[in-house]
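job 3f2a | input accepted
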Amino acid sequence: MSKLILFNKPFGVLPQFTDRGSETMRATLSDFIDLPGVYPAGRLDRDSEGLMLLTEDGKLQARIADPKYKTPKTYLVQVEGDVEDESLLTLQRGVELKDGMTKPAQVERISEPDLWPRDPPIRVRKSVPDCWLKLTIREGRNRQVRRMTAAVGHPTLRLVRWSIGEWSLEGLPLGEWKAGD
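job 3f2a | predicted structure (181 res):
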């Protein structure tokens, strides 16, 4: 049976076990997970938070991370501005990015979710409102969600991956991990 780890990655943590690209030591997965032989199934940028899956099974890793399997990934996204229906419709249909058209996304406005405080907090501007979206994609381009929201005029302020396929952050505290099914 494959080993699967669900990890709630904090903001600022590199999605790898070592930091080779900096003179100053940055937080990595090894600061939180001390299990030999497991590797991330996909990435989650340093400036994003939330669910990462890790496994030692290469086939499972590919099934989770490879876009050809179309595993849904759901994000809770705080964006700048009040998102109008037209922008939601554009996201739902697909957005033209520099590397081509995205596949359609499932997206809806949501109330502010009950999440842990981000450290450091996002930059808040009193004169600019913000709102939250729940956005699900089935591909995984580099910084795709951030680029999609920016393309419709609403830059991402905070990005939390809530679920990947059947696995979610439900009940998993920030910086903690647990074995998955």
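job 3f2a | The radius of gyration is 16 Å.
job 3f2a | closed
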